[in-house]
């Protein structure tokens, strides 16, 4: 948690990644909700050394396992092997969700005068750190405005290259007056953005919505294609507008 | 939140309504769990003015959309059009859940000497205000007894016209000793009531049950037929016994 | 809640049981997730006296009801009839989950110098007491290390008789550094134990993981066969190693 000046707003960026835990035999169980496809390359580490194995999905049962030259120790965590690809217009890699949200927070730090940057954990797997961080922030600094620096989905209504998404709702519904203020600031600043409306999905905001403090929150993030796969793809224009919007919002909210 | 005298018990009545959010194209996503039927009349407001449209449900996919003379702006909230019907014995309208719970709290206010009336939000859509209101109440007033002023379901065990329902459980189970006290008070006062036992459903009590304070809670409310539709129907005798029971409970609990 | 000396770690053992609530007519609804089989003997008590009835499961619909000589009052709670069986090697009964976890905590109390023993409720049915107990413990004693004294499952990876299970994860994932410390202590002490990895299931730790305090937690408990039935079966060696491990952990954590 980084505190700058006299904060009015906190930015939440989660650090954790989706993946797999080694169970018994060659079984795997999910961490969060990764896409699965036979042949995905996975990496990890156990007491016998580094692991670079392959995901296998049973066609009939959907059960997950790994293929490797040796058994991997029970409880070992595996993540997608990183294959970072960059073009003039895009970046592509596993875990842009939420390395980009973290990158956005770090870039924001370069010029931030007033605000709090929060790096959270367990977002992909039921939550677990935002509840106590939010309580600490509210009780220590009186801050109850939040922005969720995370990555969302390219859909039929949110397109790559058309700007950062301001989410009007996902599985939860934020306070309308707060989201309206954000929309007005984005509009006045002339920053390209898109409005997102989803019936599902969630973020660190779940813990804020259910917290024992009266937080206002809004998810503001670039959209990606190939969500939760090793091939997450984001348009650089959306990354740029995400950072630009956060810079304005942290000044004006 | 209204505080009267030296409170021992808080009444929670939620203000929010089920409905729909306009997504992309003519798609709708649900707010809470509304009944859906093609032809239901919906109303709302966007920057272009008032909206009075019609719900359409795809027979094959169940997907929701609207029919209207123009496109409605993304993120606009739509609710059932109100068609209030009253007979000598009944009232019928959308949103008796929870306008009647709110009405009950307001009528209670006319004679209340000691107690707290809480008007909450997000009850229909995952919660979000009771957690911090409950913390504030407990820490400020030491109150940890709650009554949930909300509307329940007519079922094979709870019938219209036979009195307010005291719920022994829904998806959650309240502390038995507290519910027993309420049953004894209702019985001693000779107020018509019914005992409800459900395996599902929930209320503002979910946030109390999971709160960081040791709340006791009980759902006490009239039953309705045609739940979460534009045609919610309640027997006036059940409304009368609901108010009568709250008046006694707020004196004696 | 029992507090010994200068506590660093709290042990949570839940007191509540799975079972059934009498609904309308002869219907039953579940408390928690009991196994159901026609013929299971159930016991309870209502205003008319003791109840000893039989569970019936509809083959077609799965609906639950009871068979008894009279109607049982609405809202009555029924539990499995206890048939306690002991051999040289095993104990078998309903509710070893979590009578054994409670037994473990009570035996631990005989020699405990520093620590907190917490007896919780609603663990089997969505939780409801750990959130406020955890807050009280953290704010009063500064304790944020937890052990979950509960019973887990015999599976293809966790076998009866091979020692207490240390759970590396269930539906939730505890902080790895804390679980590693526990593994090291168990190994150094030479106490037989097994490592568990599950994708589902939960415990009192759910409320700790989502609490407004930064708790570390780990589930440490003997495995049982015939989970949530009247025939829960546990190997005495696993009970012995459970108690032995708790005694060491409460000294060394």
Automatic annotation (TrEMBL), chains A, B, C:
InterPro entries: Peptidase_M42 (IPR008007), Peptidase_M42_aminopept (IPR051464), Peptidase_M42_dom2 (IPR023367). GO terms for molecular function: aminopeptidase activity; metal ion binding. Belongs to the peptidase M42 family. It comes from Hymenobacter roseosalivarius DSM 11622. Gene3D superfamilies: Peptidase M42, domain 2, Zn peptidases. This is Peptidase M42 family protein. One of its GO terms (biological process) is proteolysis. It comes from the Bacteria. Keywords: Aminopeptidase, Hydrolase, Metal-binding, Protease. Transmembrane segments: none annotated. Pfam families: Peptidase_M42. SUPFAM superfamilies: Zn-dependent exopeptidases.
